[in-house]
Amino acid sequence: MGTDKHLQFGVYVIDTVLLTAFIYGFYRLMCTISPTTVNNIDNLPLTIIIYIVGFSFSSFVFPSLLPIRFVKTEAIITRVAYTCFMTMLVVALIIFASRPFADFPRKFLLYSMLIYFVLLLLERLILKKTLLRIRARRRNLKNVILIGNEVTVHQLYEKLKNPMAGYNIVGFFYDGVCANEEITKLRVGGVSDIYGWLTNHPEINEIYGYFPKEQHDIINMMSKFCDNHLIRFFYIPAINVFKGNMVFSLMEDIPVIARREEPLRNDTNKLIKRTFDIIFSALVLILVFPWVFIWSAIMIKIQSPGPIFFLQERTGLDGKIFKCIKFRSMAVNDDADNVQATKDDPRKFPFGDFMRKANIDELPQFINVFIGDMSVVGPRPHMLKHTTEYSRLINHFMVRHFAKPGITGLAQVTGFRGETRYIDQMEGRVKKDIEYIENWTFLLDLKIILKTITNMFGKETGNAY
Asked: Which of 10, 264, 288, 433 could be disulfide-bonded to 379 (CB atoms 3.0-4.6 Å)?
């Protein structure tokens, strides 16, 4: 959530008090219900101090508070998780490097940090809700003015005017005529009137402004004025070349604009997703796959001569081709790589039809996930013929290949599963796939997996045939 110095210090104090109270209470509780968990903890006050040192260090290096005012719940969860993980590492290093604590119970450290993660997360969510209510009452606000009469300035105004955002828009400065009545009412004067007005309004915290190229000298003057009057200045570029989401970044020291946000280009996010894929797929392949394989192999061999598995070339990450593994659900035929399965497809044998409806035929794709060709969650991979056809018919179709294909995906749990008879169905699937790529979070993956499981055991089979 957004912070200022007073809020940040206040939250740190609350965090350490919560940590102190929790470690003390958790220790007393374990003494009662599981004495072995607290064996060798002879100095509780010193233990609490070590926890506070570890938390203070991790909060300094990787603060769980973000210095911005628009923060998603997923970002809060991620930051709190990182802070708690780093706290556990630092505490472990201090404890196990100290001779008096050489036999410190590892279970106590692990359990305490897992529970504290939950408590800290609840505290952050409560704090976020509290701040939103405070801002809705016109408190904890930043006073800002906007300069310019461009579309991007108007778009920023629409976001900042939300009371929950925590901004008080004091006025607009622009030349010419504005068609927006709200902005017209907020106009204080023209661009040339800014300096005189600001001199008499020291309460302004931030300025967001657009200036055309021929007025770059004004940008430098405005920047110097703000620096000398303790005001933060933000330049708004009048750019909307992509007519949608854009991401600004630096290539060395040169600003560049990306077409869209792609969280999975971040190395940390890649590591999180890949680690989860390996662990989840390994568990499925060890605990579930052998039993399903034996049962499915027997039924397939009884009902349809041919191999147990069906391997098909499909389009993967960055357009690379890979072999997608499935249980064979159709009789061996020459159209397998060209014709999509339909509801009453004569190629399907009875058990194969059941497997498709129950998603059992896709279980071997966890092998693809384990070796890295696929992910548990992502856009569903298409056969090569469909990739070629749809890339010609649907704009942005190939964007879905900026992420690893998945066993399930956002499109599949929002009504775009199975056969796509009409072009608008595929357009809807592509739209959802791109939405997933632009808004990926680990929490979103978990939601999709849970939704997939509930759909499997419910009645939402949709177009699964």
From this structure: 433
